[in-house]
Amino acid sequence: MLRPLASIFAALLLWVAPAMAADGVTVDEASRLRKLVPAEQLEQSAGQQYREMLAQAAAKRALAPEGSPALRRLRGIAQRIIPYSARFNPRAQQWKWEVNLIASKDANAFCMPGGKIAFFTGLIDGLKLSDDEIAIVMGHEIAHALREHARERIAKTQLTQLGVGLLGQFIGDGKYTEVFSAGGNLLTLKFSRQDESDADVVGLDLAARAGYNPQAGISLWKKMEKAGGSGGFAWLSTHPAGKDRIREIERRLPEVMPLYERARSSTTTKG
Prior knowledge:
Number of domains: 1
Order of helices and strands: HHHEEEHHHHHHHHH
Distance between the termini: 50 Å
Structural class: mainly alpha
Radius of gyration: 21 Å
Shape: globular
Strand order of the largest sheet: 1-3-2
Strand content: 5-15%
Number of strands: 3
Number of helices: 12
């Protein structure tokens, strides 16, 4: 009698497991093409470019100083989001995360491979972003790094420009320099529409888990649409806004709102 009961119980667990595992958004497996570009090498290259950018900003007195209220605000949001990053990429636990703010009219933000985050005041001040809206932007940019979209884009570029055989020779000989130079400047790397959609979804999940309202994605893109005609929004130029984008966020809200409510409930309980 015990064996049939055990079988039934095991079957029930298998049936219930998918529902239990359905916690937040689900995403497709990252492209295997990214493996053509060594992660460590790319992160080193990103770190170097990031340091050069910070040095240039500091020389122009545009780098927000330690203790700046605006920088503290930005880093406070990051500190809440980053702990959830390993869910989408275990390597993120080893990254030396950095968050900096640069005074510039450019409305832009990015997270480079290895967790190097930068926001420009033109984006935060220009759109008068709330903390929730900043979290949506930050989650989106962190998602690009976690999903290793840069590795994938560079690999695809190499396959297109050099051919599979030539790329194989580069990797086989350890000549990684060619991989990065052909991939272009990581600071200005453009992602595909699919990459952007992927980052939107993962970003909503990250922000919600950190206790930021994912509905802010709707207000953010409405602001983006309104600002689109004024020009000067670099972030907008590479992240096309529109009703389709807002509809996709609305479609995903049932998946992420429970995460937000749970995070809010946990914060209230601790308080």
